[in-house]
Amino acid sequence: MAWTEAQLNALKDAYARGERSVTFGDRTTTYRSESEMREQIATISAELARAAQPARPRQYAGYSTKGL
């Protein structure tokens, strides 16, 4: 799933207030525990960090068997 910074902030705000339900747009998610919320925050943070990294350019190497 493609996460947004706004969704991450909404989850962090709910965690800070001690709430287990997060509403973003028309969707409401209720977490079973605070540890589950922390895991989700870590997952979303990691995915956003990974998406922000520039893609590595591909490198190609030539190979010849004719001595060229």
Keywords for this structure?
47% helix, alpha+beta, 2 strands, 68 residues, two-stranded antiparallel sheet, single chain
Give an overview in words:
The protein is α+β, with helices and mostly antiparallel strands and 68 residues long. The protein has one domain. The protein is 47% helix and 12% strand. It is built from 2 helices and 2 strands. It has a two-stranded antiparallel sheet with strand order 1-2. A hairpin with a 2-residue loop joins strand 1 and strand 2. Helix 1 runs antiparallel to helix 2. The mean pLDDT is 87.
Topology:
Blueprint: H1 5-17, E1 21-24, E2 27-30, H2 34-52
Antiparallel strand pairs: 1-2
Helix pairs in contact: 1-2
Summarize the structure.
With 68 residues, this protein is an alpha+beta fold.
| Multimeric organization | single chain
- C-alpha Rg, in Å? 21 Å
| Share of β-strand residues | 5-15%
The number of strands is 2
Number of domains as seen in the coordinates:
1
Report helical residue fraction: 40-55%
Please trace the helix and strand order, writing H or E for each element: HEEH
Shape: rod-shaped
The chain-level structural class is alpha+beta
